[in-house]
Amino acid sequence: MCAAPIIASYFTYYVIKPKGGSTNYGTLIEPQRPISDALLVKDETGKTMPLASLRGRWLMISVDRSACDKACATKLYFMRQIRVTQGGERERMLTVWLRTDADAVPPLIEQAYPDTLKLIADPAALSAWLPADAGTTDTDHIYLVDPNGNLMMRFPKQPDPNKIKSDVTRLLKWSSIG
Question: Domain of life here (predicted)?
């Protein structure tokens, strides 16, 4: 009788081999991909800077064209709302829209998202750095970069913002960096 629990645990672990559950909604990027110092972006004034200069804060990144269609606007809306729902922790996070062209941003988008950094980046460099699911492109996802500058999570196409919020809340709660 005393050995039964030990035998059952060994049997379960070595024969049945249970698979651990996942608590995160986003896909973890393994291995992590650090922001290359060679990945340059231009800000709204035309000043060129390395994207790596944004290290030190959590970055929620969306990639799209400057014209910003409905899917782009939805991602920007989700990113803004997720950041706002973090309460006092929201200052640790920065929302970044990496535009793949230098065209003008529609005034409605400009007014709706004044706190989002709107940067221009080379689409080829972004595609090399940002992984996408099979059948999707980097413009379909929202990405999360940790304060050390490592790309660490990708959220699916047409994401559930409540699940993203849960992941971000958990990361900000348990991480002391950024």
Answer: Bacteria
